[in-house]
Amino acid sequence: MEFRDLKAQYEAISPSVEQGILDVLESGRYIGGEPVSTLEGSLANYVETRHCITCGNGTDALQLALMAWRIGEGDAVFVPDFTFFSSGEVVCAVGATPVFVDVDAVTFNIDPNELEASILACKAEGELDPKAVVAVDLFGLPADYAALRSICERHGLLLLEDGAQGFGGSADGKKACSFGDISTTSFFPAKPLGCYGDGGAVFTDDDDWAALVRSFAVHGKESMKYDNVRIGMNSRLDAIQAAVLSVKLDAFAANELEAVNRIAALYDEALVPLVDGETLSVTLPTIPQGCRSSWAQYTVRFADETLRDCVKDRLGEQGIPTMVYYPKPMHEQRAFEEKSRIYRDCSVSERLCKTVLSLPMGPYMHERDVIKVAKALASSLNLAVS
Ligand SMILES: *Cc1c(COP(=O)(O)O)cnc(C)c1O
């Protein structure tokens, strides 16, 4: 069994992917051009933002947003403590200081109450200038943007949505990657919408920020590449990946998002008998009312670390791959030792790192494999499941 079966997806769409790649090879134009601009149009249309600017990867996308906002030395950017390293790395990369904030135990996303308390603590300390919040749509579930937006407005902060795992999710009918003042995503192969290499995108409704992101992504260019007015970077999505993504976006919108939600529902159904067993029980992912996940991961929780590690080993013995996303909270990463803050304890994040386990997942997963995982999970807990 695969953790995420990218080969099954390729087999389902290979004729169109291969045609798309061939067209680029034959065009003689390998950077930029029509495949990239067409894709940007389709992505902006799907997410419902005015602008989409593709770039080299999801990490660059985040950094480009911070660069467009001129965030740097002396600025504080609030980041969830339980996320992938990039969400905080980019803050240091532009010279600012990440402030790690605890997450909600149920949704795994940044806790709005903890965020506001951390902003107040940062202001009271008076050393850093609070500028922005990075909200991550962890495992595919949009963060609590209604609450986050009002906190950002109250304190004059910009909201950056890290939708690397969130593409395809929604809340109250609004699509992920449209919630931030600027939003970003990643096309790393294993993300909800992935290409066959690295890729990323920035989304915004703001014309000036969109122009700045485009400039920073191509060496700080003005109207042309050889007129450079700011120090930028070289971060582009290449034409072959754009052609791949156009095919993949169609498949994603036509059936993969539905399919992965069906797999999540099957997991829920198969695992429900394991939920009430007190200490030897499993906690399933919870999707708040009005939200839809893109299920980048299907992540369950156990009572403690020993039980989690034991289940992981037993599943592994039966050929079922699982992953611990994430084994370490951000505030414990050595890279942040010199430059980061936490004003409040991040005990929820610490606990999640010890108790979460992500199960095999994806739109091309077979129902029989979901049952197999559920049965193996049950037997590793010494519980029966029919
Ligand atoms: C994958 C990921 C990124 C970075 O994306 P890359 O394309 O790998 O650079 C950023 N944030 C989160 C939450 C991610 O999962």
What does this structure look like?
By secondary structure, the chain is α/β, with parallel strands linked by helices. The chain is 41% helix and 15% strand. The protein is built from eleven helices and 13 strands. The protein has helices at residues 6-27, 34-47, 58-68, 86-93, 112-125, 145-155, 207-217, 239-271, 305-317, 347-355, 367-380; strands at 51-55, 75-80, 97-101, 129-136, 158-162, 170-171, 174-175, 182-186, 200-204, 282-283, 291-292, 298-302, 356-359. The protein has a seven-stranded mixed beta sheet with strand order 1-9-8-5-4-2-3, sandwiched between helices. Strands 7-6-11 form a three-stranded antiparallel beta sheet, with no helix packed on it. The radius of gyration is 21 Å and the shape is globular. The two termini are 21 Å apart. The model has no long low-confidence stretch (mean pLDDT 96). Bound molecules: pyridoxal-5'-phosphate (PLP). The site of pyridoxal-5'-phosphate has 15 residues, from α3 and α4.
Topology order in helix (H) and strand (E) letters: HHEHEHEHEHEEEEEHHEEEHHEH
Largest sheet: 7 strands, mixed
Query: What proportion of the residues is helical, as a percent range?
Result: 40-55%
Percent range for β-strand residues: 5-15%
